[in-house]
Amino acid sequence: MSKATGEMVANGLIQGTKAESKQRKKGFFFEMRRHGALYSMFIPGAIFLLIFAYLPMVGLVIPFKYITYSNSFWSTLFDSEWVGFYNFEFFWDSPDLYRIMRNTIGYNVINIVLGLVIAVSVAIALNEIRNRKSAKTYQTIMFMPYFLSWVIVGYLAYAFLSPNGFINMGILKPFGIEEISFYTDPKYWPFILIFFAHWKGTGYGVIIYLAAIAGQDQSLYEAAAIDGASRGQQIRKIMIPLLKPMMIILTILAVGGIFSSDFGLFYNVPLNQGVLKETTDVINTYVYNALMSSGDISLSAAVGLFQSVLGFFMVVGVNWIAGKIDPESKLF
Amino acid sequence: MGTSISRTTNVIVNVFLIVLVLLCLLPIVLVLSVSFTDETSLLNQGYSFFPGKFSIEPYRFLMETNLSGILNAYKITIFNTVVGTLLTLLMVALYAYPLSRRDLKYNNFFTFFLYFTMLFGGGMVPWYLVCTQVLGLKDSIWAMILPSIFNGFFVFVMRTFYKSTIPIEVLESAKIDGAGEYRIFFQLVLPLSLPAIATIAIFTAVGFWNDYWLPLMLINDPKLSNLQYMIYRIMTNIQAIREYSQDASGIATSLANAPSEGIRMAMAMITMGPIVLIYPFLQKYFVKGLTIGAIKG
């Protein structure tokens, strides 16, 4: 969902900041008397944010404590003993750090690059085929996986990969190749995870780029055609250069999220199998398992904070770069 | 003339696209086929695109022993989706409206108050403690609704929409006619914003329908499982299916020779069936919405 809406925000924020220049030089109470009704519309959202976003920020003390569970939030937080940076040091020295950082960043980099290449090429292909009706049908089908939950995707993967699954019984066995135990062997998972990431996400990216192509100035193509340029030349010299700014900005913004992964993909598709950790464990699943399986609240919170801080600087930095390239695309 | 690709290229590109389309469809077809395959032929020949021996046994088994459990999960999912989506729309539309007004002095504060939460968060652990210890949401139906009823992304989409489509003159003339802000909002602004609201509604509804995350974190009671969480638990452990059956003692004996592989896949079909069937009708709103928000004019 966050990828789905990232660009929308970009758009929303850009247009928002321009208008807030002229302000009245009147006091707080004057403003409230005048616009009280309007301000009251902020109340439900503000309460939500206070409870679900700001109150948890008080919990940022958790990584610095040895948490002993008690019944109330405040005593869990404040009656526990301070341990300084112990939890961070523990994480820093553990072999887990390298593994989850490598997996998180590695998968994100591969998926960003591959996602861009696939989305742009499929969008161009859909735009170019002659029969508009089949283009529409292809697009509809490719977008469908986007609507299925990760749990369902886990089932679909299982149908192919289980010992009884299609790959083992339908392909390998007839050729006399030995059965592969996918759910116990980590080495296959980079391919599987990357495949399903794009299986589910491609349709979305295609729509974005397809719309961008549809919005391009057609007179450029007409002029090029009159000058004798082939359609292939038009694609290479007009269409792709025109798409470039969008490709750059969307990629840069995606890089902002490089420290967080799609939990659903990495948790549901490998069925959270511990033996697959080497290639399937990312920061998000690590934080989840530390909290829910091993019950190590402080460690989980420490890694979570580590991720939040890295993510914060990444987004701010990336936004700064995007602003340098194209001021319009700046988030704030 | 160079206005379209050549006939041969057209064929090649079509083949390429058809391969991709098949890749998208085949996993679903495989699950569908397995769910209609006889259990013994599943065990002998494995999963295949063509049922070795056709059987409706998995569905019959589920109808007999798990109908009430499935209906209950549907009921929970539908309740969460409807209530969650309505609340989200109300919260988002309300917060975004004053943000879109140029004459509010403290708009910057409220923009930042929201925007900061999109940049930085306390993380999962404190969030979990707030949900369980402060709000007592563990094993409550509201656990699957309340934590998701607000969304910063949608607020900014909504604000942009208000700003770009609602003429300021309309608001001013309504004010001159003596309408209050709430009346203007509900009777003028909202009806004019239906396209944006429809888009956000579909996104939100799909999010609630597909949600397994909140029950995973906060629900243990099988009676409160939504569809996704039910099939998540059955995937992890087929025995969990007992917790969704009418009579826990009877099934304990019959599960031993039940078509368990087929049951799993039938469960998946029962869950995704409705989405796959209504998707073609919703698709165009989705596409429209994506392009409203994402593409700059």
TrEMBL record, chain A:
Under the heading CDD domains, the entry gives: TM_PBP2
The principal localisation class reads: membrane
Q: How does it sit in the membrane?
A: Multi-pass membrane protein
A Pfam family the protein falls into = BPD_transp_1
List where the protein spans the membrane: 36-55, 105-126, 138-161, 188-212, 246-267, 297-322
Q: Which domain of life is it from?
A: Bacteria
Tell me the PROSITE patterns matching this sequence: ABC_TM1
ABC transmembrane type-1 domain segment(s): 101-316
Task: State the UniProt keywords alphabetically.
Answer: Cell membrane, Membrane, Transmembrane, Transmembrane helix, Transport
* Annotated compartments: Cell membrane
Regarding protein family, the annotation reads: Belongs to the binding-protein-dependent transport system permease family.
Question: What is the protein name given in its UniProt record?
Answer: Sugar ABC transporter permease
Automatic annotation (TrEMBL), chain B:
Report the locations given in the UniProt record: Cell membrane
Q: Which UniProt keywords apply?
A: Cell membrane, Membrane, Transmembrane, Transmembrane helix, Transport
SUPFAM superfamilies, per the entry? MetI-like
Q: Which membrane topology term applies here?
A: Multi-pass membrane protein
Q: From which residue to which does the signal peptide run?
A: none
CDD domains in the cross-refs? TM_PBP2 (cd06261)
Concerning InterPro entries, the annotation shows: MetI-like, MetI-like_sf
The record, for PROSITE patterns, names: ABC_TM1 (PS50928)
Record field: transmembrane: 12-36, 76-97, 109-129, 141-162, 183-209, 263-282
What protein family does this chain belong to? Belongs to the binding-protein-dependent transport system permease family.
Q: What is this protein called?
A: Sugar ABC transporter permease
Q: Which gene encodes it?
A: ypcH_2
